[in-house]
Each structure stands twice: as C-alpha cells, then as structure tokens.
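Data card: per-record layout.
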Amino acid sequence: MRLLVMILLLAALPVAGCAQGSVVHPVEQDPMVIVYTQENPVPVRTELADTPMARRNGLMGREVLEDDSGMLFVFDNECYYTFWMKDTLIPLDIIFISENMTIVDIKHNATPCHEDPCRGYGPEQPAKYVLEVNAGFAEDNAIEPGSIIEIRQ
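The structure for this 153-residue chain is written out next.
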C-alpha cells in the first residue's frame, strides 16, 4: 500500500519541475495578442490553451492555421516548458514569453513529428506564456527576443 501511495505522489509531480500554483480558469473568449516589434505592432488572433487538456492537445491534428492566427498557452508559473510536435501536421514557430510579457526565445520552424521519440523545443529562459504560430511568421513580421507582447481580452 505504501508503494502505491509513493507512486501516486511521484506521478503528481510536474514534469518540468515547476510548481503549479492556482488553477488557471478559462476566459469567456479567446484573446488577441499584440506583438510590439521595432517596425510595427503585429496582431495575432489566438485560441487559448489554459487547461491541462487544451495544453496537452495544442495544435495536434490541425491541417491549417490561418496566417494571422495562433495558439496561446498560459501556465500558472514561469518555467522551462518543453514543447514537442507529436502528431502536429504543420510546422510552427514557438514563441516563449516571460511573465513580464517579453519574448525570451523563439524556436523557428519546429517541424511535425510522427514517430517517437519526438524532439523537444524548450526556451533558453523561463516562460509563462507560449505562442505557437505558422513557421516563418516570426521572421516575416520581425518578431524577435526582446519584443514585448500584450494580451487583450
């Protein structure tokens, strides 16, 4: 019985080693993300992934993502979250954003993965938010580390 309790407790630990605080509650509508680059503001229509299931599924199985759209992953705390492209059909740019709304890293052209093991994409610095957009979007719009974002409800 003790062994079972220990196994259950270990399984409850977060994979990335970051403590998960309060539960993030879904908002009523998906937010708009504005990325402030040196050239101009770049709006991105987003779908929100703020629950464990939504974050786990992400953009898996999607055949198309509109040009000015993406998925915004929201976590409780800053951490070194790792993303993979398992069963994702389209290449993506993965933009890691700190708690103070600054882009800390971008993984350009993360390619789909259809067999295990899949490569993991993680940031150089901790992030609280992650924005996935079509591959090439960051470069096409001069989005780079240091750019500031705003999330509008």
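Known properties of this structure: The two ends are 48 Å apart (CA to CA). The first strand starts at residue 32 and ends at 36.

See the next section for split statistics.
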